[in-house]
Structure formats: structure tokens, C-alpha cells
């Protein structure tokens, strides 16, 4: 058999996908209804083959009659030759076990593994639902010393069963030794020479030797039993020099390995959404010390990927995550290192929580918008009754778009063990102390409902950017379990919006990392705004 054709059932279950290469080199992809008779598909294939042949003849004729340097027709001879006979529509048949499949058989039954599709003199072996890449993409910006994590999606396969191979572009003027075998790809008249890097894994970290050279990624989809058609990608730009030693490199010395089953290494990180990094205020006030390239998303994503993957964390809670950053950058990078993530949009950006797949599976998700939950969920009825007494404050609270992401994860080793993981980003304004107090009251009530009513007794980890230093009412409320109505934060935006109320919550929480001198350091401010709160009744910090 000279060629291979693939059939698959796509996301729309009533359709059948057919893909194959014709003798003229063109690739055909067809979507047909599964309930359609086979004869209609074969007729369409015959028509496509005839068109492809006609195009090939026309192209050949055009090349034959192209003028040469002296003005004549190259290879034309003394006069025009006879016109080639019009091609006949090729015979197209589908065979199964050496017998022709009747044309009234439906597609869903006709296309079976091991069948043979014949188009003229060319035969194709049919593979039903072979592994195939539905998405494959390399990052645009690649730096030496930083992992390159291709974005890929596999249909009828899984990344763990795929084969990967990385190549680097040969340096200009360099010659490769003969007899290298598969370690080098021969050049064509229009392509460079590629040399194998020796890395046969999904992730490749370029070295300084790769600077100035482009990369090629060769991958073959698989499912543990068979492989599908290979694909190749070349990087758009050459590898660039990295920034050298980063501040997180020292921290990575303590996180070289994934923790054992009894420990949960947790990371919380506000990534700075691109929509905020590119404002004039950011460039001139918050980050005046940053060169413009250092605020560019493509550059920052390399640093973010390397830092996060180097922590070998079991849980990663992220804030200010652009939707595209989540899908195109974080998911490919962290998935390659064994983590799976979920995303919750806010407005222009949102929250993302990743968990290690070898330790946890996602049991359920219970996200809320603070103002929507406060307005409509009976769980917050008492708090709402207090807030409506202060209309100005109520209006401000309802204007905020902050959200809470809540996951219930189940241990992959012991299904009886579960944990509630919460992630949030509270209102940012320095005068919004009372808004953050109310948002936190809503958050804790909702987390209590999940961890006590829906899944009684499961421990809680609550991460986020809370925009509150240890001296604020929000932090006092979380740690002590209550906040008095006379606390100064109830008037954080002046007397007009004062909303005195006393609040309590159920949990016994502490900051797992204590109170660092700062988690945020920008022009004009540095302080501790981010925390990982843990349930002291069930969790403790490994010293």
C-alpha cells in the first residue's frame, strides 16, 4: 500500500473527517455526514482527484511554454504538439478484506481499520481514529536558558505517548560530518540544515550555543498503541540571549524535586496582566526602572514559565491572568510539567489555579462573583442586611468585579482525602479597605459552605493577592476571626462611605508564610499584600 488515509469522528459526532494525500501531492481534508451513503463520498473523492490532475497538467503545460532567455518557448520544439487527451475520472473504490464495500453502506460502517481506499492506481490504507495533532504552536519569543513549551492538543492520543525531537539550525558556513544518520536533516534548495539537539522530550531549554539560531520541533502523535502522522514546526525568530541569573534561581535551589505524597507545596502569584503593564501609569510611576522590553508580554512569559515550573509545586494559584496567557502560555508550560489548570475570568483578566495531576483530580468547582453572590445568595443574607443600611458603601461594593475561585480536589492515592483550594484577588484601591472586608466576609462564608456543608470537614488552603498589609482590618479579620464595628477600615474612604458593622467567621486560619517584609515592590510602595492562608485545624507548615 502506497499511502495512508485517516478517518476520525470529530467534536461534532454526526460528522466523519477524512484526510489523505493525492498522487499530485495535494492534501485533502473532507467532512462528511456519518449517515451518508459511501457512494456519495467516493464520487466526491473522484471529482477532487480529477481536479487535482487537471491542475497538475496545467502547471506542467505552463512551465513548458514559459519563455526562455532568447524570447522563444523553452523546450517548445518546431511547433505545438498534440493536446493531451482529457483525463478520465479515476476509479475510486473502498475495499474491506479484499472485497469492494457496497456504495449504499453508510459512512459510519464503511470506513473501518484495515480497509483500503483505491483512487486510480494509488491505494491507501485506512486508519480509523488515528492519533493526530489538532493544535501545534511554538512560542514567538525564545530565550537561552528558558524552557520552550510548545502548545499542543492531541485527538485520539495523549501527549505522554507522543514522540518529540528538537533540531537547531546549523550555523551559517558550518558543515556537518557525513554519516550523521538521523541526527541531521538534509537541506533543500530553500531550507537550512538542521542538526538534532539530542533532546527527545516535549520541553527544550535552549543553551547559549543556540543563540542566533532557529529551532525546529518534530513531533509524532501517539496513544500508547499506534502513532499518527508527524508534524514539524520551525520557530519564527532565532533564540535570543536571556537576562542571566534571575532572583528566582536561588529559590529554585530549595525546590528541585516534587514533594512526597504527604506534603503540598503551594505557590501564589500575581502575574501582572498585560493590560495593566502597558499603561502610561505603569511605565512612568509603578515601573519606571524597567526597560520597555522587560514589560513586554512575550519577554515576561518566558520568565514566568521558568519561575513557576522551577518551584515543582503541587498547587499554583495565580491572579491577573490574561485569558490568552492562560491558554497559550501557562497551560502548555505547566501541563508539560504535570499540572492541570482551570481559569475564571473577571473582566479583562482573571484567576487561574493549577494542581499536580499525579496527586489530585478535580472533583468540583464553586466559583462566585462577590457582588452577585452578595445580592442573590441567601448564604449572605445577614451581611447584605447590614450593608443596605449604608447605600453609598453598598453601591461601591456592587460596582466591583472581583471574583473567587474555589476548587475541591481529591487525592489520586486515597479518594477519601479531599481539599478545598480557594484563590482570589481583592479590590486594589488603597482606600478600599471596607470593600475588601466585605469581599473577604463573602469569601469565607462561601468557602465554609463548600468545606463544611458540601464536603464536611475537608481542609482549606486560601491563596491570593488580598491587597492588604498585616496592619489592615482585612488581615486582622482573617487571623483573629472577627472585626469590630469601630475598626478604622470601615471608614477607609471617608465618612460618606462609612459602614460600621461587626463580622465574624468560622475558620481558624494563619498565614503559612508569615508576614514577609514585602510580596510587592514597585515605585513608591513595598509591602506584604499576598498570602497563603491555611486551615490550622488540619494543616501545618513544613519547617
UniProtKB/TrEMBL annotation:
Signal sequence segment: none
Catalyses which reaction(s): Exonucleolytic cleavage of poly(A) to 5'-AMP
Biological processes, Gene Ontology terms: mRNA processing; nuclear-transcribed mRNA catabolic process, deadenylation-dependent decay
Primary location: mitochondrion
UniProt cross-references to Gene3D superfamilies, sorted A to Z: Endonuclease/exonuclease/phosphatase (3.60.10.10)
Gene Ontology MF terms in the entry: metal ion binding; poly(A)-specific ribonuclease activity
Keyword annotations: Exonuclease, Hydrolase, Magnesium, Metal-binding, Mitochondrion, mRNA processing, Nuclease, Phosphoprotein, Transit peptide
Gene Ontology cellular-component annotations: mitochondrial matrix
Segments of this protein annotated with the region Disordered: 54-84, 173-196
Biased composition (Basic residues): 54-66
PANTHER family for this protein: 2',5'-PHOSPHODIESTERASE 12, CARBON CATABOLITE REPRESSOR PROTEIN 4
Family that this chain belongs to: Belongs to the CCR4/nocturin family.
Name of protein: 2',5'-phosphodiesterase 12
Gene: PDE12
Amino acid at each position: 500500500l502506497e499511502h495512508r488515509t485517516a478517518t476520525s469522528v470529530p467534536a461534532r459526532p454526526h460528522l466523519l473527517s477524512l484526510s489523505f494525500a493525492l498522487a499530485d501531492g495535494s492534501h485533502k481534508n473532507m467532512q462528511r455526514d456519518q449517515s451518508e451513503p459511501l457512494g456519495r463520498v467516493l464520487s466526491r473523492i473522484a471529482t477532487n482527484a480529477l481536479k487535482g490532475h487537471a491542475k497538475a497538467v496545467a502547471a506542467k503545460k505552463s512551465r513548458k511554454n514559459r519563455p526562455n532567455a532568447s524570447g522563444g518557448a523553452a523546450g517548445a520544439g518546431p511547433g505545438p504538439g498534440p493536446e493531451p487527451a482529457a483525463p478520465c475520472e479515476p476509479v475510486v473504490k473502498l475495499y474491506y478484506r479484499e472485497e469492494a464495500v457496497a456504495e449504499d453502506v453508510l459512512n459510519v460502517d464503511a470506513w473501518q481499520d484495515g480497509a483500503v481506499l483505491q483512487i486510480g492506481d494509488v491505494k491507501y490504507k485506512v486508519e480509523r481514529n488515528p492519533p493526530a495533532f489538532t493544535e501545534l504552536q511554538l512560542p514567538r519569543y525564545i530565550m537561552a536558558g528558558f524552557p520552550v513549551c510548545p502548545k499542543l492538543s492531541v485527538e485520539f492520543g495523549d501527549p505522554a505517548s507522543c514522540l518529540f525531537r528538537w533540531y537547531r539550525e546549523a550555523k551559517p558556513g558550518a558543515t556537518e560530518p557525513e554519516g550523521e544518520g538521523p541526527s541531521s536533516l538534509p537541506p533543500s534548495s530553500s531550507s537550512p540544515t538542521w542538526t538534532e539537539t539530542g533532546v527527545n522530550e516535549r520541553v527544550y531549554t535552549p543553551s547559549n550555543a543556540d543563540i542566533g539560531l532557529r529551532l525546529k520541533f518534530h513531533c509524532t502523535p501517539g496513544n500508547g498503541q499506534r502513532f499518527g502522522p508527524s508534524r514539524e514546526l520551525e520557530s519564527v525568530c532565532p533564540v535570543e540571549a536571556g537576562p542571566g541569573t534571575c532572583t528566582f534561581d536561588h529559590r529554585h535551589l530549595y525546590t528541585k524535586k516534587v514533594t512526597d505524597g504527604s506534603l503540598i507545596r503551594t505557590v501564589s502569584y500575581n502575574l501582572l496582566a498585560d493590560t495593566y503593564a502597558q499603561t502610561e501609569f505603569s511605565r512612568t510611576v509603578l515601573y519606571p526602572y524597567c526597560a520597555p522590553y522587560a514589560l513586554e508580554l512575550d519577554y515576561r512569559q518566558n520568565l514566568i514559565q521558568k519561575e513557576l515550573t522551577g518551584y515543582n509545586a503541587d498547587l499554583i494559584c495565580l491572579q491577573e491572568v490574561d485569558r490568552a496567557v492562560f491558554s497559550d502560555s501557562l497551560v502548555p508550560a505547566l501541563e508539560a510539567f504535570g499540572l492541570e489548570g482551570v481559569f475564571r475570568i473577571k473582566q479583562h483578566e482573571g484567576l487561574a489555579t493549577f494542581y499536580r495531576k499525579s496527586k489530585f483530580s478535580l472533583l468540583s468547582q464553586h466559583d462566585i462573583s462577590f457582588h452577585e453572590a452578595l445580592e442573590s445568595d441567601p448564604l449572605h443574607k445577614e451581611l447584605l442586611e447590614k450593608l443596605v443600611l449604608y447605600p453609598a458603601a453598598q453601591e461601591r461594593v456592587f460596582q466591583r468585579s472581583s471574583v473567587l475561585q474555589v476548587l475541591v480536589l481529591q487525592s489520586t492515592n486515597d479518594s477519601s482525602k479531599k481539599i478545598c483550594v480557594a484563590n482570589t484577588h481583592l479590590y486594589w484601591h488603597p482606600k478600599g479597605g471596607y470593600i475588601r472586608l466585605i469581599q473577604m466576609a463573602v469569601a469565607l462564608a462561601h468557602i465554609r459552605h463548600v468545606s463544611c456543608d458540601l464536603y464536611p470537614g475537608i481542609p482549606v488552603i486560601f491563596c491570593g493577592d488580598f491587597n492588604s498589609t498585616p496592619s489592615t482590618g482585612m488581615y486582622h479579620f482573617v487571623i483573629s476571626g472577627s472585626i469590630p464595628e469601630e475598626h478604622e477600615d470601615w471608614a477607609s474612604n471617608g465618612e460618606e462611605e462609612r459602614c460600621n458593622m461587626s463580622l465574624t467567621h468560622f475558620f481558624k486560619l494563619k498565614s503559612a508564610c508569615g508576614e514577609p517584609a514585602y510580596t510587592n515592590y514597585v515605585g513608591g510602595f513595598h509591602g506584604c499584600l499576598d498570602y497563603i492562608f491555611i486551615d490550622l485545624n488540619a494543616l501545618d507548615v513544613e519547617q
